[in-house]
Each structure stands twice: as C-alpha cells, then as structure tokens.
Amino acid sequence: MKRKIFHAVALAVAVAPMAWWSVSAAASLSLTHVHGLTYSADGSKLMVPSHHGLAVFSSGQWSKASGPEHDYMGFAGTRSALYSSGHPAPGSGLKNPFGLIKSTDGGTSWKQLGLEGESDFHTMAASHGTNAVYVVNPQPNSRMRTAGIYFTMNDGLKWERAEARGLGGRPLALAVHPTDASTVAAATDQGLYLSKDAGASFEPLIAGQRALAAAFTLDGKELWWSGFEGRPTLTALPLRDGSKPRRVVLPAMGEDAVSYIAQNPARSQEMAVATFKKSVFVSADGGGTWTRIANEGDAAAATAVSRKKD
Question: Would you call 42 exposed, middle or buried from its count of C-beta atoms within 10 A (0-12, 13-18, 19+)?
Fold first, then answer.
C-alpha cells in the first residue's frame, strides 16, 4: 500500500494531465485533477483549482467559477486575495508560464506579479493574514539564482531565498502561519519540519516518515498534516510546548491519502480535505464526521460518511 501511495505522490508532482474538469450531458461536474484547495474569504465557497479554471462547491452544489480558464498551479488563498502560478488559457495572449499572479475578486480577474514567461511554481503557500507567499522554485530564473524555497512579503517586489538549514528531504508541501509570516512549515518525503525564521533554519516536528500535506489552523494554534502509514492519516499538532498531537479520524479511503487541507475562515470547525485520487470531503465538526462531496473526481450529490474508530 505504501508503495502505491508513494507512486501517487510522485505522479501528482510530475505529471500534468491534459484535462481537468468536464460537464456531461446531465451537467454534472467531473474533477479530473486537483491542484489545490481553499475557501473564499467569506467562507461561502470551497474552491478547487486546476487546468481549466476553478470549480466551486457552494450551498451543496458544484459549479464552474466565473473567470478565465487558466491552468492554475500552486494555488493559495488568504483573507484578501488568491495567489497562483501555472499557465494561461489558450487565446488569452498572456505569457506562459505565469510566474506569480494575484486575484482580489475571487478569481474573476488576475494581476501578474512578476516572473511571467519564466517560472511555474507548483508548490506554494500564503499566510492568511499577512499575504506572505512562499514557493518552491524548481530552477533558476531572473530573480532567483538557484532552485530552492523562496518567499516574498510584498507581492513579488522582492524575493528572498530561504537557506533551509536542517530541512531534510524534498518539499512536497508548504504552509505559512496565518499571522506570523516568518513561521513556515514544510512537509517533505522525510518528515514534517518547522521554521520560525522565514526558512533560514528548520527543526523536525515529525521525522522518519513522509509528510504529504500541511496547513496551519487560522488561529495559528495547530498545524494539521497528512501522511500514510499503511493507511491514510491526518494529525492535528498543537504548537504549544507539552501539548499532545491529536489524530483526526478520516473516512475510509483505501489506498488514497490527503493531498490538501483547508479551513473555513467563517466557520472554524469546518475543515475540508482533498485526496490524491480526487475525492473531496468536508467536516462541519472539526473532523468528527465527514461528508463526501466528490468521489474520485465524480462531483455527485453529497454523501454522509460515518465516523470510523481509529
């Protein structure tokens, strides 16, 4: 099972499918890939970005969002904006790839923040309250001399390289503290790491196992992270010294695992997760019970999922 999940992770990083969403004759939305997960600033919409625009789940229904059908990668939401990278829609006339782009109207329109025509950041995270953006840069560009983790505190006007001393393994996901822009977490193929100095140095929180996804709760008190230990796992890790981690009981997923984690800014107990096999689940009670809103890409009617004993 572990080998299959690790293979799925590698595919998720390396392979870009030709299509992402489609509408059948019955007008049912189908997710053929998932490149991120975030709530709108008012908490009314759960957004799934990918190759041909945004899919939105709101009021119990899926729909395609207004706005350009760009290939959104490295998608991250904050209190006041959406950030992304990726590739422009055909016929848009925009340079490919995007570098860093920003939307302040929920994805209807986008502003380019630099590095267009140079870089596509697949791994990105943003601080909910400060708009600090961290990326994993895959190769040198005109603003970044080497590959590695970089951050900007001012919408791309200045980029700084994180030295990342002590970080073990290859970063699979990043998370930025909602109010402290210098606190960043990295989920890697060797563990979960935390930095309190803008990535200059990292300390291991979890070592010796692959961490797949990570997200700070919006009050900054916990760091949620996912893994796979013969089965998918999701853990809420308190950031206060002496507090014990809390295992969040997931619905049955088989050999699937959590690839993205999001919290509703308007309803703190509402959490959402997406998986490598394109399923999406929402919990209204902090992970006690779950509702499946997409089943391996099929955005069918929402289905309640019973809580399992851990």
Answer: exposed
